[in-house]
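Reagents: none. Just compute today. DNA-binding phage zinc finger domain-containing protein.
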Amino acid sequence: MDRREIAALLAYIGRLDPRSIRTDEGEARDQLAQWNELLGDVPMATPHGWDARVAVRQHYRASPYQIQPADVVRPWESYRRNRLALHSDPTPSADPDDQAAWTAELVGTRRAVANGIAQPAQARAITSGQEEINPRLQARLEQIGSCIPPAARAALAPFRLARAAREAAVAQGLPDALSVRCEWCLAPVSEPCRRRRIGPNDGVRAITPRATPHPGRVDLAAQQAQQPALA
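Predicted 3D structure written out:
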């Protein structure tokens, strides 16, 4: 609040409690300076629920004592804590590689929520419907084509051989072998084929994933890809 808002608040307090009225000009000036010093960072009202006059009214409804600046500051701090407790940080739209911009947007959102300028962002529940995506994130996703940047995808390729082979096949227009179940190793959909290691007693000693799918699985995927075209 600025000095004019503080003066308006003191006038409102004077209507509720005549004991707080200062008739001497010097005392009134000192009272205004004291309240301005202690409530300078407390707003008079916010778009979402805070009003200093409501805090004053609540004080006099529950207490017979004259109000002090702390009786307004305490509800304001409680208001801020409650709003931050309800807030779940949404993913910033800034480039995550730009740490300064990412942090600044995150802090700015929290400050806006705490100060009553913006509503708290609730944690999104798992739903089956289509959720709205931030337009800036959608534009960036369309620009790079994936939530994983191409450079990061290339760096991860040696550690995700089956995934890399699947993406390379799709990029070349070949059928996605992992879209069907493998009839040879019984690998389910979206999981790579498996290689069995047999011991001397014909028992399976270990199962390791294959970097490439079994030929029969590739043929089955090609057959299923041709069926819609034939239909």
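The beta strands are 194-198, 204-209.
Action item: order primers for follow-up constructs.
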